[in-house]
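Thread title: Can someone regenerate the structure for this chain?

I was given the following input by a collaborator and told the matching structure tokens would be attached. They weren't. Posting the sequence so someone can regenerate them.
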Amino acid sequence: DDPVKLVDRLIEYYRTKHFRRPSCFCDARAEG
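Best answer:
Regenerated them for you:
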């Protein structure tokens, strides 16, 4: 697969699945 398409799918997935829970991601990065 084209890496660009893969990234696009990843962003699409993130937007649709985790758009309502961005704090989770931010908290994980803050701790690490």
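DSSP finds two helices and no strands in the chain.
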